[in-house]
Amino acid sequence: MDAPLEKIADPTLAEMGKNLKEAMKMLEDSQRRTEEENGKKLLSGDIPGPLQGSGQDMVSILQLVQNLMHGDEDEEPQSTRIQNIGEQGHIALLGHSLGAYISTLDKEKLRKLTTRILSDTTLWLCRIFRYENGCAYFHEEEREGLAKICRLAIHSRYEDFVVDGFNVLYNKMPVIYLSAAARPGLGQYLCNQLGLPFPCLCRVPCNTMFGSQHQMDVAFLEKLIKDDIEQGKLPLLLVANAGTAAVGHTDKIGRLKELCEQYGIWLHVKGVNLATLALGYVSSSVLAATKCDSMTLTPGPWLGLPAVPAVTLYKHDDPALTLVAGLTSNKPTDKLRALPLWLSLQYLGLDGIVERIKHACQLSQRLQESLKKVNHVKILVEDELSSPVVVFRFFQELPGSDPGLNAIPAPNMALSAVSQERHSCDALNRWLGEQLKQLVPASGLTVMDLEVEGTCVRFSPLTTAAVLGTRGEDVDQLVACIQSQLPVLTCTLQLREEFKQEVMGTAGLLYVDDPNWPGIGVVRYEHANDDKSSLKSDPEGEKIHAGLLKKLNELESDLTFKMGPEYKSMKSCIYIGMASDDIDVSELVETIAVTAREIEENSRLLENMTEVVRKGIQEAQVQLQKANEERLLEEGVLRQIPVVGSVLNWFSPVQASQKGRTFNLTAGSLESTEHTYVYKVQGSGVTPPQTPSGARTKQRLPGQKPFKRSLRGSDTVSETSSVSHIEDLEKIEHLSGGQGASEANSPERHPGVPTPPEAEQTGALQDRAQHLEDDCPQADHARLLLK
């Protein structure tokens, strides 16, 4: 671009363009870093650091802007997508700098230049989008143009509004009609901008019996208009959609136009489908928008142009009313809002504009045709297939219902089952949308909640393709990702009911119904001291669930486990994620129940042991104090005097026996150490109790992960052979007297065979200590107490 800059006669303009080009390069190069200054001046406490001294250089300022945009190196990378600014984006950004420079011209040159820019841009937009003899209002906020149009309609219908003001509206209240499928908050915004009460808004429902459920019901609208006229109200304005904000459906604009002409209502059209007016072929429903009174366009997202204003095209013959309504202005700076769009339209040309809009429509058609071949995916489209927006949703057909998303349940099907299935699919669709956004970021997908259909995924390339650079290969990748995720979704939805029944049939487990969780389900373990009526957090239960989560994650299965509060309370639960088709739900539930029960028992055993040790220490202190008193009475007072006692002990020594105490952890009692000092060995004490046995360990092949359903037949054979092997070993033990059988039944020689009672009693104390050391972090404290 150096050669064109050299041809510019104005040196200031050429220098400004050169500086803007250098600034853009520095902002886009994320690898460029400036050297830090070696010496830093002492900063004053009154003046902020960046303002001190003689100011900062351009490189330092741009470096600061880059850090604010992309974050520092120490911060984690953000997942948000940054718009890919191409050459046309640079032209649009150049328009803002040019606007600042042009505003410094003298008034006459500024007036001529701004008038030329405004008239050219208005003419080009009207010709491109087939809106003949229209005027244009450029605005930053998309809804601002509609607010100005409403103000123009009020001034047109109420001739004395400028003089009488609110009194005119009070005598005959205006009514603004909005579709039920309009963007949320639009009506409230209009009332706030116009100073009207909320009763001035009329929400028109969509079709319920025939046609799209996102199109305005024309017959019901006509009934509302007649009712308002009978009540002395004035039907003022109707907002129609050429592409609803949610699913991109187009209202019957031709029929609505006839209705508005009949009752003298201003018709305003908005929506993303208005972009197709620039194409050679336009559907009849969208083409009817060219006959409306006004329309709002958003060429910035359609063409991938940053910081480009939205445009409201309208038709009106009275310039005085448009000036009062704020649609026109005598200030040249207001006219300069069209400058970025004026430059961008010239840079792209008609072919470039049409190519970008056509490419976006082809992407939506490509995805729509591909999704028709995918099972368990429902597409929300119009009958004419003219919408460039594709909205789809994963669904599972219910038994006894018609295939489809909005199937009416059969009489023998409970309504609660349909509602539960709907909530389950909503959670799965929310998970699917988030996964697809991460796997294919160039698709620009969004997840939304619809009132009738539920949670859906939307693909709107007209608003994202030009910005993100979406290509046909991205659409193919998106379809492949959807197909790869469908088995997981269908299997998870099928396993939910099985998981619920297994949990409800297992003692100690409580099934938690969380409609927002997309996995198999949520389960909570009810310990002995659990207060079922309380909704507050439970520290003991939280400790048990934390240990359970650790144990489940150590199994290294294909499932994901998380811990969090319950959906309707603050109690901890275990959340189980998505599953494949080879998950054994019964084994999963059994493992959760047994593991949680063992953690609770070990925790309770440690608490009991801590209490026993504390009481044993107190008892030992009492007995030792009593022994000291007995020794004092036996030896006499004289022997306790330091010097006299030594002399007396030399003449008449006393044979004092060693009397100590030892604490038996197994029996929980104090014992004398006399046996230890006499026989020089430590007594074995009472045989420890048997360690609580866990669940039956399922035999697995090397490399096989837990909770696998596919090898259930081989496991049954292994268990049968193990049982027969146990019976044979018991016969050998009975014949040989036990010793040989004990060696034969050693766990090291025969893995999978249960340990005989003698061996269990021998190593039970070690197993108990190992359980306490693994599951109870207070074991070290208890060990110190024992010492």
TrEMBL record:
Gene3D superfamilies in the cross-refs: 3.90.1150.170, Type I PLP-dependent aspartate aminotransferase-like (Major domain)
GO process annotations (BP): carboxylic acid metabolic process
One Gene Ontology molecular-function label: carboxy-lyase activity
Basic and acidic residues bias: start-end ranges: 27-40, 725-734, 768-787
SUPFAM superfamilies reported for this sequence: PLP-dependent transferases
Keyword Transit peptide set for record: no
Polar residues bias: start-end ranges: 684-696, 713-724
Keyword Repressor applies: no
Chain residue ranges for the region called Disordered: 27-51, 683-787
InterPro entries: GrpII_AminoAcid_Decarb, PDXDC1-like_2nd, PDXDC1-like_3rd, PyrdxlP-dep_de-COase, PyrdxlP-dep_Trfase, PyrdxlP-dep_Trfase_major
Cofactors (names): pyridoxal 5'-phosphate
Residues annotated as domain PDXDC1-like third: 499-604
Domain PDXDC1/PDXD2 second: 387-493
Keywords of the record: Decarboxylase, Lyase, Pyridoxal phosphate
Similarity comment text for this entry: Belongs to the group II decarboxylase family.
Protein's recorded name: Pyridoxal-dependent decarboxylase domain-containing protein 1
Organism: Monodon monoceros
Gene encoding the protein: PDXDC1
